[in-house]
Structures are given as structure tokens and as C-alpha cells.
Amino acid sequence: MKKSMILCASLCAAFMLSSCGSSKESAYKRAYEKAKSQEQTSGESAAPVVTPVEESPATQITVEESVENASVRQENVTVVSGSGLNDYSVVVGSFSLKTNAEGLYNKLKSEGHDARLAYNADRNMYRVVAASFTSKADAVTSRNEFRATYPDAWLLYRK
User: Fold this and answer.
1) Which pLDDT belongs to residue 99?
2) CA gap 25, 128 in Å, rounded
3) pLDDT recorded at residue 112
4) Taking burial as the number of CB atoms within 10 A of a residue's CB, which of 21, 35, 94, 99 is the most buried?
5) pLDDT value for 30
């Protein structure tokens, strides 16, 4: 008796599920046909007019503005490898494991960059510095160039 009840309930559930699919399909088909007919009627009207957008001098960003607005993180770091740090540095990688940081550091050195490896004891993070500068403008320019290869590059101001 239990087997027949389970079989009957299974058949009812299968019937209900199969009937829902056909109504969904027909609803989608009707919506598609309606959209298609609207597309055809609007396609017969005149083509849309495209007007070029002209840039005004107010919308153009100058280098000075981007330098002033560039975000800089302040951290207390100590140099682990490489020459000393200047005021502004371009960080291309942050790692909690020293071996991972050394891998990127060695890669940058092999590519000819004057890379440095710095350690932030407060956050227990190793920062891989690709370049270091005394002026913020030079650091921003360098960071923008490094972002082609390292999209998450950021600026560090050494406390």
C-alpha cells in the first residue's frame, strides 16, 4: 500500500512539473513574438540620429589635477631588501609571506627595475616597491605606467 502511494505521489509530482514547463515556454514564445513585432514596426521608422560628443575644456583632466587627487597610503615600513625608500613609492604587490614577496621582488629586479622589499610590522605585510621617488608627480606617473602590468599598483608615503 505504501509503495502504491509513493508511486502515485511521484507520478502526480512529475505531471505537475512537466505541465509547468510548457506554460513557461509558451509565455516566453509570446513575449519573443511581441518583441519581434515591435522591432519590425520600429525598424520601418527613420534611423536614429547620432550626434558626436565634443569634449569641453572643463571635462579634460590635466596632469596636475590627477597628481593632486591621487590617493596615497601612509605606512611605517622598514626596508628589507634593496636600496632605501624615498618619500613616495609605487607598490605593486603586498604579501603576508616573505617568500611570495621575494618572488615578485626578484622578478622586478630581473626586468631591470630598482625594486625594493619593505615590511610593515603593524599589518605584518611585505610590500614590493617597484620604484621610489621624492616627488608625488613622478610617483603618480610611474604608478600609472606600472598599472599596465600591475593593475592594483598604489602609492605609499613613508612615515
Assistant:
1) 95
2) 56
3) 94
4) 94
5) 78
Distance of CA 111 to the CA centre of its chain: 25
Residues 107, 64: Cα–Cα separation, whole Å? 32
Q: What is the DSSP string of the chain?
A: -HHHHHHHHHHHHHHHHHHHHHHHHHHHHHHHHHHHHHHHHHHTSPPPP--PPPPPTTTPPPHHHHHHH--EEEE--EEEESSPP-SEEEEEEEESSHHHHHHHHHHHHHTT---EEEEETTTTEEEEEEEEESSHHHHHHHHHHHTTT-TT-EEEEE-
Determine what percent of the chain is predicted with pLDDT higher than 90: 52
Give Cβ neighbours of residue 82 (< 8 Å, ≥ 6 apart).
105, 114, 115, 116, 117, 129
Burial bucket for residue 120 (CB in 10 Å: 0-12, 13-18, 19+): middle
Rounded to whole angstroms, how far apart are CA atoms 72 and 74?
7
